Amino acid sequence: MKELAPQMSEENATNEVNCGVCGEVVTQPVCPECLEREMIDWLAFKGENIAELLNFIKETTNIFKAYDCLNTKCVICGKKMRVCAHCYCKEIFDYMNGRYPELEDEFITHFDFNIHFKMRIP
Ligand SMILES: [Zn+2]
Ligand SMILES: [Zn+2]
């Protein structure tokens, strides 16, 4: 009887579960593309001049697509994660901060796991 081949492929596969930007384990696996969709849905109800903000959100999603895939899947679309939701939301929040002060509070309410994450850093 032949010995079963050792499962080398499993060992060689990426087991990376840490965010490509902040290096933290991804605890809120929602990918930038799904967050982008949520943000655009949310902004659709705003009457403000938000074209620049929408462009920035799309650009940020594209930038984060360049990171390597992690061994963690988005809970919404099932695609592999690259960066955590916190880092993505932080980028958007930093841009919004100052430019769209009237939207900030609502942004925090809708995408609050990012902002709380900042305060959780010891
Ligand atoms: Zn991160
Ligand atoms: Zn997704």
Task: Provide an overview of this structure.
The chain has one domain. The protein is built from 6 helices and no strands. Helix 3 runs antiparallel to helix 4 and helix 5 crosses helix 6. The longest helix is centred in the C-terminal third of the chain and has 15 residues. The radius of gyration is 18 Å and the shape is elongated. The protein starts with 7 loop residues before the first helix and ends with a helix.
Largest sheet: none
Number of helices: 6
Radius of gyration: 18 Å
Estimate the helix proportion, in percent: 40-55%
Concise structural overview:
This protein is mainly α. The protein has helices at 8-12, 32-43, 51-64, 85-99, 101-110, 112-120.
Question: Strands, helices and their partners?
Answer:
Elements lengths: L7 H5 L19 H12 L7 H14 L20 H15 L1 H10 L1 H9 L2
The structure holds zinc ion (2 copies).
The site of one zinc ion has 7 residues, from helix 2.
Features:
122 residues, disordered C terminus, binds zinc ion, 0% strand, mainly alpha, single chain
